[in-house]
Amino acid sequence: MKILVTIVRIIVGVLFIFSGLIKANDPIGLSYKMQEFFDLWKMSAWNGITLTLSVLMIAFEIIAGAALLLGWKKKLIAWLLLLLIVFFTFLTGYAYFSGKFTNCGCFGDCIPITSKTSFIKDVVLLILILFLFFNLKYIRPVFSKNTTMVLLVLSTVLSFGFQWYTLKYLPVLDCLPFKQGSFIPDKLKVPANAVPDSTEITFVYEKEGKKVEFNAEQFPADFNDSTYKFISRYDKLIKAGSNNIPEIRGFDFDDASGNRVTQSILDAPGILLLFAEDLSHPVQDWAGAFAPVYKRALERHLPVYIISSTAIPVQQSIAATPFKSVPVLSGDRVMIRMAARTNPTLYLLKKGTVAGKWSYKNFDDALEELR
Q: Could you tell me the pTM of the whole model?
């Protein structure tokens, strides 16, 4: 039994650490997934703290996994892991059975798994943690008390430090469609192996004060215009397709006059795009670092645009900066969030290919690239 408990303990501990590290690579992505749940549950007031919740939950996964492997406070850790996996199982079960989420974000964007797979994984983990919970007597500390505390402190520093880095300097492992080297026009297309939704035209009529629905092949035997009054028609989903959504959606930009300029951006031999979701990160905090990049771009005759979901306020905010003449384009907020994991994020596109990508903390690297 002791050997079996040790094996299960290693599996559970390593899986929690791995899951936490994968999500720590992109904690803001998990916070966006939380917002989807809160919006669905009419709890949008919680959206302001989702990033904090994301960082704390990720850190807990890593620290708890390490504590389990080390055998520290086994009863406390067992209870906490049990409560956490019950919560996760509820979320993934809801995502699977409701059909409202195709991916719960359990392993971030680097390892996308279906809601069904996520739910099964959590059920298995729940069983394994319950097994450990009822066999705590076989769990012993691996190292001395002092060594254990040092390792736990290191895991805590790692869990928070790694997240701080990725929130400031972009994910270390970029698994998003906008990663460097991506050819954006291809990402805007439905995948070649997509299976489209299967639908049928459904008619809605009123007969004797009651609504009646039927398709084009199943008209009622007594159908006639005198007894049936047409109400509407719609496409009824018969079977959902698969893999039929482009990796990038909402990649459309309008200038101040309302003109769509997307294609000219994708066709440009070289162009700089600064994605700034909104003014939650004030312009004055990054204007000094961006000004020399803009100057270098002018010297190289590179077009520069700022893309924001709040174009007018951003245009007003840059009025006193050296780059006040940069056009600000309106863009979809969800798309910008995918493109810019830091606010702002700078892109160098060459004929639709992502040739460079920098956080506002790395504008100096962009300057070097533009030499």
A: 0.83
